């Protein structure tokens, strides 16, 4: 099972690499070929986050309960502000809706969903590059939420299409499909 | 010459005229002169009254204080926040701006307050605490639960009109009736019936003064006082008095009592704050009591009405006894004239003055941060707009963090000087603290004594950043995962670089030793110079410069090898921008001191939204951040563990420049990033390294700020190896696991062997 989830995940990671590669490192081999060689190598593994957490090591992220020991997730605040943001969006005030999300982000900056919602408001406002950057941020924080990953890739695909980057948009769409099937 | 001719012609004219005609002529002249005079005065009255558009200073606020369930907060801290914005402890909670403290509960009658994105209503909120946290927030009236509320922000400064007046406008509808009663009782009891001048009032005042043998009452009506305040100089001449009476009468003919009273309330002079006059009761309420006018008690309103007679004579801060007597007199007059009954009088006279020890805010409190805000504002607004339109500016300042940072800086520099027997007062420093995700500047300190300093080092002192640059060199390498990993072997053996026309450049290490083959982990955590120069040259200066550009460094960067050791001069603010990008995992948010700006009526003008730009590969940023965590646990910053026990892990980097002239530390925990510079204004050596100087200040600042351990969730695409044996400082050690960018599993060179570089 995990193996079947693994290969699309790898593909996502490879596309991710394509999406965020710095201009300075473009001489690196094309990601797709990279993925191919990786997939055949015995080092290939699905995203190793859960695995890493189970392994003791100095470099590893703190277990969630320890890292957040002084600050458990402030759920009611985030929920209230998400609601407020939705209401403002429904009443045609996208910028006020964004402001509510930013308030929530100042309380809970690691919340990938909040970054995604902010990205979708920017998309709605036609601020394509900002929408993509925010969705990338959400992706970087997204962890294991495949549904959210898929939504972010879809959003990035739309933004890239609007920016005239057809190839980038296609790559993002594929990534979204893969993430989506992993979520099902 | 001309004088003589005039005299002669006048003589000729008058000599031939009959007395009656002369009289008529005189009368005509007198009437027309009077008419002209009255017309002129009327014109002035109209122009003054109608053309009056008060210049209102821009109000600069800190960030609002958010309160939410689950927040780490104790009741004392919340009480402190409430006090700072003028909430009074008052069991009844009748008026907004009051609170009631119980052991584990604070009930707050919150004020209505308008923000860019909506209005917080007037409501009573119950905040329950348990175990150092907010347990629940409830709305008292409907019993519902609230997710989050914000306490209105502290006023941290104003940007004043040219003529230095301070004014908080209050519309007449919002003026408490008790204040009007008090004014009528003490200043002008016939205000609503006289026509500008009150002859009875003058007689009564004269009689009262005669009986008392001193000037206890004035005969000027409110209208006359307004005229005096509005149009005339303060000289006391007969002509001026006549003008004042005439203008008062004209004012009453043209305008209603309501208009006159409304203007009076906002115009009258009520005190002095340094160079600035305090005009109007709205301003005075804030100045003396730290609260809005509508929240004041009757005794407080009576005091303000009493001050009208002589703001400096009755200054309640300087002459509390005198002010109290004056207040009690006003209250007694109010009682005598039927505005309050005897028990109310007794109760009001029994109240303490309750004037705050100093004005609730002062222009001197946050000068460095205000400087930053002003510079940012001037990109979007003219000075004229800032000085006159009453803009409301909501900033990102965390006032407690700012004050903690200022205190930390002062005390640490003093300790450093005394521990090391340095000349006192020569060390200077700057601190910038930012929110890693939003780019909000939470605090900026530009001097040891910001209140007297003219030089804001947080923005204007540009110094070489030394080893602060190194993480960006390593990042440039790690963004090529097919070539580099955190266990890549680097060469720290002697190096000589040809330098056309000059002697060869031979970089050295801080400890003046060479360490041979070292891992990237060791090279960055121990801040080896030679290995870093080799790595940077191998990766390419262009790539390193590209990374620095992505990190928001805008100044010109010369592609010279010395760049790799930090031969770039940056201000602490610029360095903070660069580290913000790292700390947020590669996403740049431009550092920003302003959230939004409203006009005087609360309409939104501009907003600085969170803006991101993906500037680095998040996976490479993650790898660098894991290395920066090692810096503070086993590298050059390891003393931090002793200074901040229980707050590990933290990430950071020390920086020291030639001959110990500049001492830097940049570091971050969960959501909070700080950059500190310590050095001397004359650029002489201080004897302090990054760790012994700036890091000490940083630790003290962050201790006070309550920094939390860095939770560094790996982004998608990070893999982990099994255990790895690795040389570290000449020994072999085992690391349980090493992160890498998938799928490039790193190959660590065998430990025991005198390892060769992978890239030779």
Structure, explained:
The complex is a heterodimer of chains A (184) and B (760). Chain A contains ten helices and no strands. By secondary structure, chain A is an all-alpha fold. In chain A, α6 packs antiparallel against α7 and α7 (112-124) runs parallel beside α9. Chain A is globular and about 35 Å long. By secondary structure, chain B is an alpha+beta fold. Chain B is elongated, with a radius of gyration of 35 Å. At the A-B interface, α1, α2, α3, α5 and α6 of A face α20, β25, α22 and β29 of B.
Outline the secondary-structure elements.
The complex is a heterodimer of chains A (184) and B (760).
Chain A: H1 2-20, H2 31-40, H3 49-54, H4 64-67, H5 75-90, H6 94-107, H7 112-124, H8 128-141, H9 146-162, H10 166-183
Helix pairs in contact in A: 1-2, 1-10, 5-6, 6-7, 7-8, 7-9, 8-9, 9-10
Chain B: H1 2-15, H2 19-50, E1 58-61, E2 65-68, H3 75-84, E3 88-89, E4 98-102, E5 105-110, E6 113-115, E7 118-120, E8 123-130, E9 133-139, E10 148-151, E11 155-159, E12 165-167, H4 177-187, H5 199-212, H6 222-231, H7 238-254, H8 257-267, E13 269-273, E14 276-279, H9 281-289, H10 298-307, H11 320-336, H12 342-350, H13 367-377, H14 383-388, E15 392-395, H15 399-419, E16 427-435, E17 441-445, H16 457-460, E18 463-464, H17 470-478, E19 489-492, E20 516-519, H18 520-525, H19 529-539, H20 541-550, E21 569-570, H21 572-583, E22 587-588, E23 594-598, E24 604-607, E25 613-614, H22 618-634, H23 639-643, E26 651-656, E27 662-668, E28 672-680, H24 694-705, E29 718-720, E30 724-728, E31 731-735, E32 739-741
Parallel strand pairs in B: 1-15, 3-4, 12-14
Antiparallel strand pairs in B: 1-11, 2-10, 4-5, 5-8, 6-7, 8-9, 13-14, 15-23, 16-17, 16-28, 18-21, 19-20, 22-25, 23-24, 26-27, 27-28, 29-32, 30-31
Helix pairs in contact in B: 2-7, 4-10, 4-11, 6-7, 6-8, 10-11, 11-12, 15-24, 17-19, 17-20, 17-22, 19-20
